[in-house]
Amino acid sequence: MRLRPIRCNVLKKEKRMKEIKLNPELADRMGRIYEEMASRYEQVATQLQLSCDGCPDNCCDSYFQHHTFVEWGYLWLGFCQLPEAQQAGILERSRLYVTGCEQALERNERPQIMCPLNEHGRCVLYRHRLMVCRTHGVPATMQRPDGQRLNFPGCFHCQELVEQKFSQQPSAVPQTDRTDLLRKLAMLENDLMDGARRLYPRIKLTIAQMLIKGPPAVAIPHCERERSSQ
Ligand code: SF4
Ligand code: SF4
Which of 24, 144, 166, 188 is the most exposed place for a label (fewest CB within 10 A)? Predict the structure, then answer.
């Protein structure tokens, strides 16, 4: 049974906003990009013998902001499948999360608050977790559109393992290349926005902020508003 999410009525009240929905084809493409990210992560983590199990840290309290409507929409699809009582608990934690982050940022501190989707140390939307949740731990590289290459060293635990195993051979450190998957993600984002992503605002939201807002939505352009009111 598919339960009705408790935030799905929000947009009906916001008549000037229109929901951005992932159709099954776009959701399938998003799922395949995510699976490939996770698979590449696993390959490198296996080579490094990196595991989150038993790690003294839990990266789900790291402060990350996210930038694509398509990831937001895919997360929302997963959220809508949760039982209503669980959704309510997540939204309550999301509100506390947002308040806690605002207070930390006012103190010029980087927020460190557990993600509202983490219950008892586990992600309740594991299949729908975002890109950074699937890539953060292992060393990675990517080439930007301007040709500049960026390198990421992985999490602190990973860096310890790299130091132990590869201090004599730094060039042999395994890493994932994110370039092609980020390109696919950008294409998917553009397709979701009918080929006009550049016309819509940039977003920079935590998971908690996304969930509180409900499904991804954009302001209806004036021309469409006038058409719909005729
Ligand atoms: S990503 Fe790294 S630091 Fe984070 S929980 Fe996993 S092993 Fe620990
Ligand atoms: S979405 Fe899941 S994996 Fe990502 S930070 Fe939240 S609880 Fe952790």
Answer: 24
Q: What are φ and ψ of residue 194, in 5° steps? A: 55, 40
Q: Which domain holds residue 175?
A: 10-229
Q: What is the pLDDT of residues 19-56, one digit of tens each?
A: 999 999 999 999 999 999 999 999 999 999 999 888 88
- Judge whether 165 lies within some domain: yes
d(CA 184, CA 32): 10
The reply to whether 1 falls in a domain is: no
The predicted pLDDT at position 3 comes to 42
Q: Whose CA is nearest to atom 1 of ligand 1?
A: 137
Residue 153 carries which side chain, given as an amino acid letter? P
Please count the structural domains in the chain.
Answer: 1
Specify if 5 maps to a domain.
Answer: no
Lowest mean pLDDT among 8-12, 170-174, 201-205, 218-222: 8-12
Q: At what angle do helices 156-166 and 24-48 cross, to 10 degrees?
A: 40
Give me the pLDDT at residue 210, please: 97
How many angstroms separate the alpha carbon of residue 74 from the centre of ligand 2?
A: 14
157 alpha carbon to ligand 1 midpoint, in Å? 6
